[in-house]
Amino acid sequence: MRFTSEQRLDDGVIEREFTLGEIPGTLWTPGSAPAPLVLMAHNNGLPKAEPRLVARARYTAARGYAVATIDAAGCGDRPRSAADEQARADLRRAMQVGEPVDEILESFIGPLVENAVLEWQTTLDALLELPEIGGPVGYSGGWAALGIRLAVVEPRIAAAGFFAGGYVPRAQREEARQVTIPLLFLLQWDDEGNPRQRALDLFDAFGSKEKTLHANPGGHTGTPWFELEDGCRFLDRHLK
Amino acid sequence: MRFTSEQRLDDGVIEREFTLGEIPGTLWTPGSAPAPLVLMAHNNGLPKAEPRLVARARYTAARGYAVATIDAAGCGDRPRSAADEQARADLRRAMQVGEPVDEILESFIGPLVENAVLEWQTTLDALLELPEIGGPVGYSGGWAALGIRLAVVEPRIAAAGFFAGGYVPRAQREEARQVTIPLLFLLQWDDEGNPRQRALDLFDAFGSKEKTLHANPGGHTGTPWFELEDGCRFLDRHLK
């Protein structure tokens, strides 16, 4: 893990860019050390520099967490293939016009999840070597399929917050019942890109004894600010 | 309004029993005055002395709210008729064995809601005369039908928390879209006595721009403790 830049923010949070082999990432750490770690992933296709993710990460770090994110293969600063770009465009278009997306989910997103899990585990190994990181690990992210797979295969993850779980490949829908860690499941009630019933079915399927659904009206990007605070309080209950 | 007993609790909260005409009630006030008021109603049929309600009321008062509850007609310390007792028993039995309850809801609960709204409004008038109460008014309660009707007819109520809204008479289901104040809607995902889909449909129907659904696994009385804290934070956002 090689740090390539460092910036101290107003609230004492340090924001550092890093690379780990081919993987570019960002790490936010609070002044106080060592802090519990939150892996913050994004909806597939978006860069780690996306302003909403950065705002969530900075807020969470200011609340006493180390927060890390990475660009998934083919996203953000990483090289992308024409085939991947085409598949992403197909998926976006199908979601926008309300066409079935299950085939693209299976053929395109499925393998991406497998690869992303390996990269996040590599990143986790490296992060846990840092002296400023300690304690249990949480997941917080918009990529529900990745979060489910990570929660199943990665025993170091103690709690997870998921967002927008309407479209998840069959493999992850099926292994949802193997997830047993505490969950906070965030749903935008009128999210045009995430069918409500599928998200409710996924919430129902999780095997966790403690799982909480928070639903609010509005579309995909309309999550109210207080859910950010609620999300941190969920992490506080399980990681602090 | 006549106070008949007074008890000072450990955390500085004062708990007083009162009567207002035929209505017996309890008022909890925090040390600091004047405090915003929370009307805390119960599932129809239960007494105001029910331990879960008392625990919620004391917690909420310790968080800086004046909290009031009353016994509904035919409940708790109030005289009851054989016909009402029979109707309550029929309703409980039908819910336990999963029989349709709509007819009992309409014929029995419907008129009770009308009467309870008048009594709560009378109580509200009297409470707002007290110097230790000031600021906006909230509703928090398990009797969703009462809360809906109050939210529609009573402009002094600025925010409401509802619990277990599966069984609500048709009149209140229909006027749910007239409710426009901020709502927190609490659902027990496996509540044997409150059909999940009906509760989700009710949440969907509310006209409020700010409405949040919190769902947790388990039966009717299994609400996790952190929802009590979340409920107070919801009130904090709208009443303080």
TrEMBL record, chains A, B:
SUPFAM superfamilies: alpha/beta-Hydrolases. Gene3D superfamilies: alpha/beta hydrolase. InterPro entries: AB_hydrolase_fold (IPR029058). It comes from the Bacteria. This is Alpha/beta hydrolase. The lineage of its organism: Bacteria, Bacillati, Actinomycetota, Actinomycetes, Kitasatosporales.
